[in-house]
Design goal:
Helix content is 22%, strand content 27%. A six-stranded mixed sheet has the order 2-1-3-7-10-13, sandwiched between helices. The longest helix is centred in the N-terminal third of the chain and has 15 residues. About 5% of the residues have low confidence.
Length: 257
């Protein structure tokens, strides 16, 4: 039997959104609830408020390490310049590394396994000069697999995938970035050091806590500093302890420009 190769969506815009969300992991113990909603909700917001963006979204088993990398590279090859808005919603993890000062790599946990921060850093170095990239990661890289929102009294699940047999860092690092001049992307992590990102419920519907409040924090003309500060304040107001952190060349810039 011959299988027809999936037709790729042609990239026609200089402004591209790549959304990756994973609710359904192998097995059921590590499944999440709000990640697909995070991506779909952001596509709806962009269609309404930033219609110049061509939105591509991928879910669950489609979001493998190879596909994640190849889609970013495909966007870069589509033109000599542009704006890539990259969003990942799902589990993060940490794995031992002899090359890291703290002994661990931070990683996204995609459908088929971890994608470490060194790979993201390499993709930054491969970014063509004419491209600007904003990356948001609604995931976490530290432990504590369950907690309760103090204002809603509702059980939440943290977006961390524990690697079997690996001890968690005492002082984890959640910034999915490198703090050196080589950082080419604007990166917003959904939580700070020693924190976790919540998969939570709002009015009976699941979202990542960061994503839910981030959607309410940026509009055309908003600058990144104000977006992050508003999301921080809303998270605090509703009883979530996580503090989103920005890094990279963002200071004073308007969002998505």
């Amino acid at each position: 039997m011959c299988w027809k190769k999936r037709q790729e969506t042609e990239i026609k815009s200089k402004s591209v959104y790549l959304g990756f969300g994973i609710n359904d992991y192998l097995g059921s113990a590590n499944d999440l609830s709000g990640c697909v909603n995070d991506i779909n909700d952001e596509v709806k917001k962009l269609n309404n408020e930033f219609p110049e963006f061509q939105c591509l979204k991928y879910f669950d088993s489609k979001v493998t390490t190879q596909f994640f990398i190849s889609e970013i590279q495909r966007v870069f090859k589509s033109g000599s310049e542009g704006f890539l808005y990259l969003k990942y919603s799902g589990h993060g993890t940490q794995i031992p590394s002899a090359s890291e000062p703290n002994g661990y790599n931070e990683a996204l946990y995609l459908y088929n396994g971890p994608l470490i921060d060194d790979v993201i850093y390499k993709l930054q170095q491969e970014t063509p000069e004419g491209w600007k990239v904003l990356a948001k990661f609604d995931s976490c890289f530290s432990g504590d697999m369950g907690s309760k929102n103090i204002k809603t009294n509702r059980r939440i699940k943290n977006r961390f995938y524990p690697m079997p047999g690996i001890r968690l860092l005492d002082r984890p690092v959640n910034r999915f970035s490198k703090t050196d001049p080589g950082q080419r992307w604007i990166i917003i992590s959904s939580c700070g050091e020693e924190q976790t990102s919540a998969d939570a419920w709002f009015d009976g519907r699941a979202n990542g806590a960061f994503s839910y409040f981030d959607f309410k924090s940026y509009f055309r003309g908003t600058i990144y500093n104000d977006e992050v500060n508003k999301a921080k304040n809303l998270l605090h107001l509703y009883g979530f302890g996580q503090v989103p952190e920005p890094s990279g060349p963002y200071d004073g810039d308007e969002v998505l420009t």
